[in-house]
Specification:
The chain has about 450 residues and is α+β, with helices and mostly antiparallel strands. The chain is built from 13 helices and 15 strands. Helix 1 (about 10-15) runs antiparallel to helix 2 (about 20-45), helix 3 (about 90-110) crosses helix 4 (about 160-175) and helix 8 packs across helix 9 (about 310-325). About 50% of the residues are buried.
């Protein structure tokens, strides 16, 4: 499994920069390297999860930092061994320090030495490639580029990048989450979750005071970006002409259906990211002491399969919280509430649920006033929205008639097709989501009117 830190859509944006050939070349070369890595991953046999550890090894943490000397040859030559003094090479020494921090988090707080849980030597290679704009876990070690010197700084500079990639190794040896679709987004999210915990622990922060930013410092001065991702506010990390606008989403209401980015693994990871941050803030205290233990138990406890979806993982975390903290039901309550807030778990009766199918004896178009349409997916994974008032808009009667003829109470969603859109039609609090191929002729006309004639807005 090869998991890269920077999503391909961001690299593609850099590669298309016409005003700066050097920057565009760095984006293209990074994409080419990543494509080769993905091909290698696809052809490699899947590594089975390792058994869950029960005790921490008494041996000291074994780490070795290597350098590829700006080649793509791995693992490279030894630059600093465990216990040796600083070298003066900034990337080598940053990698040495941050690998110690993430090793200590897992060994001390989760009883897990090294990524595989057996205390095996952790290999980290720096100075990978020429102007390489990424970092990755290749199935057996961690690899870091130096950035392009114009947009991206060293990938060893933010310590949470190291933790993010290390956690991909932990996932590989435990739940083995398939790197595609929702399970792939969970794979990415789990890495961000443990990366944030490592950063907070190193800085002595509790969940409330933490900034919940991932990759803070990865961008050079002059780039309008605070980090690569925000866990509490997905979609707000950057907005720069060279990068575009952060396209991450933080709610199932904005879920992106796409075949790009391995089915949106970086785009949609903001949803479980936000759930963890909300839960940790609500639970309070240090994120790794209770909420972090819940996530680790769900990941490693054997209750989630490799292809688990968001709902399955959410249920596992609620179960873990109940089991781990039987005398503090508030923990499980906060975990459940966080998943509800991002739309993965249905809202309780006391809340305001949005059912996917209406009661059969209700004709929503006759009673509703607000009509909204959201389109997601497609090749680019962009989101488009539009809405209108059925009472005030002159097309209201026409739209009501179309909706009644569509007989919404009989429709049920099928599976989305690659590179095709998914539509959500909402009438007040009621909504129905259908893939493009399942739209009736009447609904085709409805979405056309709302998105085109009523001024639908592209959202990235």
């Amino acid at each position: 499994m090869t998991c890269t830190f920077v999503p391909p859509y961001l690299l593609a944006r850099l590669a298309s920069t016409g005003a700066d050939p050097t920057l565009a070349g760095a984006g293209r070369s990074t994409l080419q390297v990543d494509a080769r890595l993905r091909d290698q991953r696809a052809g490699a046999p899947r590594q089975p999860p390792a058994a869950r550890t029960t005790a921490v090894s008494s041996d000291p943490a074994e780490r070795v930092i290597r350098t590829a000397d700006h080649t793509e040859q791995l693992p490279g030559t030894v630059a600093r061994a465990d216990g040796s003094p600083p070298t003066g090479d900034v990337a080598v020494d940053e990698a040495y320090d941050s690998s110690a921090q993430v090793w200590d988090l897992f060994a001390t707080e989760f009883n897990r030495p090294s990524a595989d849980g057996t205390g095996s030597t952790l290999t980290v290679t720096v100075h990978y490639g020429q102007d390489y704009d990424n970092a990755f876990w290749d199935g057996s070690q961690l690899v870091f580029g130096d950035g392009d010197g114009q947009v991206f700084d060293r990938f060893t500079k933010p310590m949470d990048v190291m933790a993010h990639e290390f956690a991909h190794g932990v996932t590989q040896y435990t739940a083995g989450l398939t790197y595609e679709g929702q399970s792939g987004a969970l794979n990415e999210s789990v890495s961000d979750v443990f990366a944030s915990m490592t950063k907070q622990r190193a800085l002595g922060q509790d969940a409330v005071s933490a900034d919940w930013l991932i990759g803070e410092g990865i961008f050079l001065p002059g780039i309008n970006a605070k980090a690569l991702r925000s866990m509490t506010e997905p979609g707000t990390a950057y907005d720069d002409p060279r990068l575009g606008r952060d396209p991450q989403v933080g709610s199932m209401a904005d879920y992106v259906t796409t075949t790009e980015d391995n089915g949106g693994v970086h785009l949609n990871s903001g949803i479980p990211n936000r759930a963890f941050a909300l839960a940790a803030i609500a639970v309070g205290g240090l994120s790794w002491e209770r909420t972090g233990k819940v996530w680790y138990d769900a990941l490693t406890g054997g209750e989630v399969g490799a292809d688990v979806d968001f709902a399955g993982f959410a249920a596992a975390t609620v179960g873990s919280a109940t089991r781990l903290f039987p005398d503090d039901s508030a923990v499980a309550g906060h975990v459940r509430a966080a998943w509800q807030q991002v739309g993965v778990i249905a809202t309780d009766v006391a809340g305001t649920p949005a059912p996917t199918t209406p009661p059969v004896d209700v004709a929503p178009a006759e009673q509703a006033r607000r009509l909204a349409v959201r389109r997601t997916g497609g090749f680019a994974g962009a989101t488009r929205r539009g809405e209108l008032d059925l009472d005030d808009d002159p097309r209201g009667p026409q739209l009501r008639q179309l909706l009644q003829r569509a007989d919404l109470t009989t429709l049920s969603p099928g599976a989305a097709s690659p590179d095709r859109f998914v539509y959500t039609v909402a009438l007040d609090a009621w909504q129905l989501t259908l893939p493009e191929q399942d739209l009736t002729p009447e609904l085709h006309e409805v979405v056309r009117i709302v998105l085109d004639d009523a001024g639908g807005v592209d959202l990235g």
